[in-house]
Amino acid sequence: MRRLLLFNLMAAVIVGLALVAHTQGLVGTIGSAPDYEPTAIPPTPSGMPRSAPGRAVPGDEAPAPPPITAPQRPTGRPAIKPSTPDVAPGAPAFGAQDVITFIQNSGVHGVRIASSGPVAVVRVEFLTGRAADARLQAQTGQPDDALLCLVTLQGSFAVAGPAGIPPRTFTTAFQLYDALTGNLLLQGEIPGAP
Known about the structure:
Low-confidence stretches: 19-23, 26-34
Strand order of the largest sheet: 1-2-3-4
Helix content: 10-25%
Shape: globular
């Protein structure tokens, strides 16, 4: 009984849709002529080969894929304002005193690192990306020939960990700056420091 009822309901819906389509002019009756003129596809112009598998025809080419670009090096966040605007190529845009003044005024704070108490600048070095990678025993993401500023700091530092794990504390930290822009690139614990 249910099947018969379901079948009758489906048949009524189909007949109703067909009736609406016919009254709206969406379909013609069987054997009637279409209400439109079919469009003829123009022949291929002479001298132009027809498209065939493996053979491109002008205008049939697929768009070229976008060019592959090299990944961009990290640019960091603004920090030290360059004090030497007209620097010679390969020279830093700020000096050691600019670094010391910046750290004294700003402290050491970042996304996951913080300092408590006084911070002493132990060393300020201008070096290449390759030398910074070796000193930090890590990849900084900077080109080997990039001019960087590595700052060694003494103080009480902590790095936040995942939820539920206490912060890791240490006394020797670093900050790595782009020596041309003054942007802070990285900061953290110096590997192997006491």
